[in-house]
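User: quick one, sequence for these tokens?
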């Protein structure tokens, strides 16, 4: 009898483990966890490209930033990551995109990207106002003259226009949004941790698709 009970306990434990693993590997559902981008956009040819669309003034992007930053630190070798400051047709978000690309051109993103979020959402500073923005970057130790020149440069203006075109091509309905390899837009089913899990599964899907070719 004891032997039988031990065997039954082992069987039940094995079934439970299988069910748990099955639940963890649940298939993504289109419309709930992701949607396809049609037509697909040209991705990075060498690696699986993950693109985050964001706006500095978005409170949800502010909340998502630390979760995403932690995920980016552990990118697989075959995955690349980039951020695109989103611009919708009314251009209300254009100053944020212009700020992002100015910081990028000056190699200041690592130092000031999260600081911009903090200034807007914690310190309540109106960085969409040029006067306030220029005073803020000066306080951060940035050369005001160089910042002004970069802010007004053709290169930054071109990047802003490209961001607007990409935002429209991806068919965004809001931010934060994450595009995987120009083919899939990960959706937020609940928490940002779940969104990151969906991104991982979409990356795995793209990886499997490339093997089949």
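Assistant:
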């Amino acid at each position: 009898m004891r032997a039988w009970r031990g065997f039954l306990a082992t069987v039940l434990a094995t079934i439970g483990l299988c069910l748990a693993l099955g639940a963890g590997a649940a298939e993504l559902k289109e419309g709930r966890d992701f949607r396809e981008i049609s037509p697909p956009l040209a991705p990075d040819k060498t690696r699986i490209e993950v693109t985050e669309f964001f706006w500095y003034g978005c409170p949800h992007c502010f909340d998502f930033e630390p979760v995403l930053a932690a995920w980016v630190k552990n990118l697989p070798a075959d995955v690349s990551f980039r951020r695109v400051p989103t611009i919708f047709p009314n251009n209300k978000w254009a100053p944020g995109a212009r700020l992002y690309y100015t910081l990028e051109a000056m190699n200041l993103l690592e130092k000031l990207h999260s600081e911009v979020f903090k200034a807007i959402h914690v310190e309540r500073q109106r960085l969409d106002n040029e006067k306030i923005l220029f005073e803020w970057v000066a306080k951060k130790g940035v050369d005001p003259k160089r910042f002004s020149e970069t802010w007004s440069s053709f290169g930054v203006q071109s990047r802003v226009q490209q961001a607007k075109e990409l935002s429209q091509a991806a068919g965004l309905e809001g931010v934060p949004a994450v595009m995987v390899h120009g083919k899939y837009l990960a959706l937020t089913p609940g928490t940002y941790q779940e969104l990151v899990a969906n991104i991982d599964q979409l990356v795995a899907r793209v990886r499997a698709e490339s093997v089949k070719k």
